[in-house]
Amino acid sequence: MTAELGTILGLSIPVVLSVVGVAWRLGRVEGRLTGVERSVERLHADMDRLREDVKTILLRLPAKPE
Of 5, 58, 65, 66, which one's alpha carbon is 20 to 30 angstroms from that of 20? Predict the structure, then answer.
């Protein structure tokens, strides 16, 4: 019985450590994805502002004679 328990515990420790390691890595990946998502949102906002600026500039340009 003691040998069986030792075997179970011996096998369980690496499994537990692996699960903890995977969970930790998933947390890091999730954090990075959240950061990327925020960066994409800021990029979209910047593109919208740039688009408006270009429209304003184009409206101020004198018309070309044809």
Answer: 5
